[in-house]
């Protein structure tokens, strides 16, 4: 059994740290934060996203790929060579520790679409990359691209998140934003690709909850060419972000109003301009409304967004200190890395918190 | 009596000890089944005239009356049922087509009854609608495929015309003529109070009801009765009726005796003439013709009204729906083979069409596969019997449902299926003034409001159980459904898993 063969609800812990000034810091802190919430995971999945970690390759897409075996690797590399210029490739450095076992082959490629192929496809560059990622993940058995953005990367595995962090030597990376996830699935797939974060291009999602709108969201998003192969909430949320932000052109504020739309009674009480806009978003993007409990942290190039469901059925706390913003399932996970906070609060249900790094600083 | 004699299907049983000879039954029965015998000061009944509408039973002050199924029987035969034999007698006598009313009563599978709903346990909380907001508002109409912004970057609300409903339920098309003035008034007032829409049906709109326009769908059918510019502009939406679930492929016929002064005026046809709706629209022989009618109606209404195209569920429904979605229509209404009617040839009603559950599932899937599901809303009817059917239909992919029969039952209909006689004792499917006035619209509209208020509560309870607090998140959410006792093919078409999976 692996992810995608059955629907797998799970509870979780999430954490995120971002520097508004784009200052880079080590992955050590996010490991420390997520480790505090050990009880919220059960050892069946953990992972991290790190932004700003590949400045020397920032113009290239960084593909992180799991391979079941060398056959899959060979087939996938043939595909990559046909579609991309591969600037650099290497194993992702890991540390052998007893807590993390049965690792697949884990490789990293810095790539750029082949100009001739890209032109022939008549697609914009990012769409081209997305389609190639889908091709690999659905057509090449044993190969799975789990990270595909520029100047960012996902690191995930089966295990407790703090062990996963040590396994990937996350303390050796420096970035301006990190997010983390510890998983408590109700099933036991034990497949690395099924761990979170889930990412597409530079969008990454960590999520705590079980959304009741899942199949409505899934069937709607699949109409636009996405294929939900993992049957997890995080996957469908990530695709909806890609669709609404990259393809439709909504901003993150508007995306919050779509995902966790205000109740009609709230909308009716708003001033005219705002009311009409909220009504428009709820009507047009009705199939992207998410119901049921969730707290999510979305990472993207130059920023981070945190959002709770409309009823706030999952805990989520935000803390600020100078240029740093912290978001976590529990306040303790923030206090452990920054006890002296300027401000700490629990956003309301449906109240999005969007943090943008200063322009030009990332 | 001879060979054509048919023993009555039902018998009127009168408890003579209870009967006080008040003669209410006699006065109430338009079929004249009851008679007072002066000499013996007794009431007697003729079972042969009884249609089993329960009017006399319901009004008998001493509960002296009941209607029972006659034990009279033919020699048992699994192939030749009593019904089959009697129908042959009737046709051998008359040489005519058999007529029936209301929906298909035959024993075909009812898929709604083989689908079960989900509820939350442990991993996801259920939501109590008495304590938390629970939203059932829906918008029907095409959605834009792109967003546009003004020079300040604000969203331009580039929405085609929409319908807003307080819950995903509307009253389906029933014409003035097939049902009474008072029935229409009840529907119109209930729709207005509930924040939903009712549908004029194909008989035009009585001038008294123009004031309910915001809550009205005006229908344009093949007979084009009562269609003029003011009519088209009076409603919130326009429906082109291509077909009806109870009689796919055939037209309609309102006999001249029902075309009194008022109906004649509303339908714009001479008094006493038969109102005949042709089987097809004679300006629509193909899909490209439909497109022209859709745009003619939009032109006539300045592109301010959404256009619904209503079809009967037939075998090729998914492909037809796809064609309609590309024809400029804003909504597709699909009517299942159990949908009601004021009169239809029995053979057509009972043997043509598809169950709505299967039609809905395959249309929703096809439109998604083709990437055009957002271009149209899907409305389904025929037959939605309860709030559970509504929830299941929405989860299968419907934007809203139409109810017809359920609304009439709320008004007093007892499903005796004799509408075609025009002698409805409940004042619904009749134009006889003495009968029409039995339906008091002040009471009728309130009963409709009660019914849908109750359904809305139940829908919220079911949604809350599933952990869903807004109806949008239920639409097409087929993971919330499981089939029981269905085969692989049925599950595949419905797009749901079997219970236990």
Automatic annotation (TrEMBL), chain A:
The keyword Transferase applies. Pfam families: GATase_2. Signal peptide: none annotated. GO terms for molecular function: transferase activity. CDD domains: GlxB (cd01907). Keywords: Glutamine amidotransferase, Transferase. The active site is at residue 12. Residues 12-362 form the Glutamine amidotransferase type-2 domain. InterPro entries: GATase_2_dom, Glu_synth_lsu_1, Ntn_hydrolases_N. PANTHER family: AMIDOPHOSPHORIBOSYLTRANSFERASE (PTHR11907). This is Glutamate synthase (NADPH) GltB1 subunit. It comes from Thermoclostridium caenicola.
Automatic annotation (TrEMBL), chain B:
Residues 10-39, 41-70 form the 4Fe-4S ferredoxin-type domain. It holds the Pfam family Glu_synthase. [4Fe-4S] cluster 1 binds at residues 19, 22, 25, 60. [4Fe-4S] cluster 2 binds at residues 29, 50, 53, 56. One of its GO terms (molecular function) is 4 iron, 4 sulfur cluster binding. Its EC number is 1.4.1.13. It catalyses: 2 L-glutamate + NADP(+) = L-glutamine + 2-oxoglutarate + NADPH + H(+). Keywords: 4Fe-4S, Amino-acid biosynthesis, Glutamate biosynthesis, Iron, Iron-sulfur, Metal-binding, Oxidoreductase. CDD domains: GltS_FMN. InterPro entries: 4Fe4S_Fe-S-bd, 4Fe4S_Fe_S_CS, Aldolase_TIM, GltB, GltB_archl_type, Glu_synthdom. GO terms for biological process: glutamate biosynthetic process. Belongs to the glutamate synthase family. This is glutamate synthase (NADPH). It comes from Thermoclostridium caenicola.
């Amino acid at each position: 059994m692996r992810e995608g063969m059955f629907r797998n609800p799970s509870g979780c812990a999430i954490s995120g740290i971002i520097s508004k000034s784009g200052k880079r810091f080590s992955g050590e802190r996010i490991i420390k934060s997520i480790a505090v919430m050990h009880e919220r995971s059960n050892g069946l999945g953990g992972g991290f996203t790190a932004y700003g970690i590949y400045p020397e390759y920032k113009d290239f897409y960084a593909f992180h790929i799991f391979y079941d075996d060398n056959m899959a690797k060979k087939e996938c590399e043939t595909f990559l060579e046909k579609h991309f210029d591969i600037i650099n490739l290497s194993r992702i450095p890991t540390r052998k520790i007893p807590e993390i076992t049965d690792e697949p082959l884990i490789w990293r490629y810095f790539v750029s679409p082949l100009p001739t192929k890209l032109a022939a496809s008549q697609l914009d560059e990012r769409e081209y990359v997305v389609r190639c990622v889908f091709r690999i993940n659905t057509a090449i058995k044993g190969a799975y691209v789990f990270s595909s953005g520029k100047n960012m990367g996902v690191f995930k595995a089966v295990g407790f998140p703090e062990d996963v962090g040590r396994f990937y030597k996350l303390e050796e990376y420096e970035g301006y934003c990190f997010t983390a996830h510890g998983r408590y699935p109700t099933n036991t797939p034990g497949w690395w690709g099924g761990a979170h974060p889930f990412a597409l291009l530079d969008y990454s999602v960590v999520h705590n909850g079980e959304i009741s709108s899942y199949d409505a969201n899934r069937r709607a998003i699949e109409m636009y060419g996405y294929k939900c192969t993992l049957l997890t909430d995080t996957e469908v949320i990530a695709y909806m972000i890609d669709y609404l932000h990259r393809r439709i052109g909504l901003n993150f504020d508007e995306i919050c109003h779509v995902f966790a739309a205000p109740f009609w009674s709230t909308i009716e009480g708003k001033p005219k301009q705002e009311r009409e806009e909220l009504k428009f978003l709820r009507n047009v993007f009705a199939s992207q409304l998410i119901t049921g409990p969730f707290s999510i942290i979305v990472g993207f190039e130059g920023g981070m967004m945190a959002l709770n469901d409309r009823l706030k059925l999952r805990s989520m706390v935000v803390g600020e200190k100078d240029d740093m913003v912290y978001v976590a399932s529990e306040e303790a996970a923030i206090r452990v890395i920054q006890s002296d906070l300027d401000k700490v609060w629990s956003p309301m249900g449906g109240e999005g918190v969007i943090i943008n790094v200063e322009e030009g600083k990332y | 009596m001879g060979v054509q004699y048919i023993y009555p299907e039902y018998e009127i049983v009168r408890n003579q000890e209870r009967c006080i000879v008040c003669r209410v039954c006699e006065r109430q029965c338009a079929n004249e089944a009851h008679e007072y015998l002066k000499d013996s000061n007794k009431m007697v009944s003729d079972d042969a005239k009884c249609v089993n509408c329960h009017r006399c039973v319901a009004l008998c002050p001493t509960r002296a009356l009941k209607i029972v199924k006659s034990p009279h029987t033919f020699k048992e035969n699994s192939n030749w049922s009593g019904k089959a034999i009697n129908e042959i007698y009737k046709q051998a006598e008359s040489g005519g087509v058999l007529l029936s009313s209301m929906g298909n009563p035959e024993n075909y599978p009812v898929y709604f009854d083989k689908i079960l709903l989900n509820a939350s346990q442990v991993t996801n909380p259920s939501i109590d609608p008495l304590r938390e907001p629970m939203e059932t508002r829906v918008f029907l109409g095409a959605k834009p495929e792109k967003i546009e912004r003004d020079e300040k970057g604000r969203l331009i609300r580039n929405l085609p015309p929409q319908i807003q409903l307080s819950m995903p339920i509307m009253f389906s098309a029933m014409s003035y003529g097939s049902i009474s003035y008072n029935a229409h008034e009840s529907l119109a007032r209930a729709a207005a109070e509930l924040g939903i829409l009712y549908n004029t049906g194909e008989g035009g709109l009585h001038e008294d009801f123009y004031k309910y326009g915001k809550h009205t769908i005006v229908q344009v059918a093949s007979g084009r009765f009562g269609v003029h510019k003011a009519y088209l502009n009076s409603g919130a939406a326009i429906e082109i009726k291509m077909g009806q679930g109870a009689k796919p492929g055939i037209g309609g016929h309102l006999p001249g005796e029902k075309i009194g002064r008022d109906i004649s005026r509303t339908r714009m046809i001479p008094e006493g003439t038969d109102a005949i709706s042709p089987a097809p629209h004679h300006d629509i022989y193909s899909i490209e013709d439909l497109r022209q009618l859709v745009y003619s109606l939009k032109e006539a209404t300045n592109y301010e009204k959404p256009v619904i195209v209503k079809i009967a569920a037939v075998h090729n429904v998914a492909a037809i729906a796809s064609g309609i979605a590309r024809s400029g229509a804003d909504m597709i209404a699909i009517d299942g083979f159990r949908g009601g009617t004021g009169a239809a040839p029995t053979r057509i009603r009972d043997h043509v069409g598809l169950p709505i559950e299967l039609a809905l599932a395959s249309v929703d899937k096809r439109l998604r596969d083709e990437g055009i599901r957002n271009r149209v809303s899907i409305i389904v009817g025929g037959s939605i019997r309860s709030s559970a059917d509504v929830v299941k239909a929405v989860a299968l992919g419907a934007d809203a449902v139409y109810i017809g029969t359920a609304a009439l039952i709320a008004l007093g209909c007892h499903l005796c299926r004799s509408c075609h006689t025009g002698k409805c004792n409940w004042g619904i499917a009749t134009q006889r003034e003495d009968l029409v006035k039995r339906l008091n619209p002040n009471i009728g509209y309130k009963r409709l409001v009660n019914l849908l208020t109750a359904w809305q509560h139940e829908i919220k309870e079911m949604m809350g159980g599933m952990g869903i607090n807004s109806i949008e998140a239920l639409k097409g959410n087929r993971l919330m459904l499981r089939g029981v006792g269905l085969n692989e093919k049925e599950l595949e078409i419905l797009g749901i898993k079997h219970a236990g999976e």
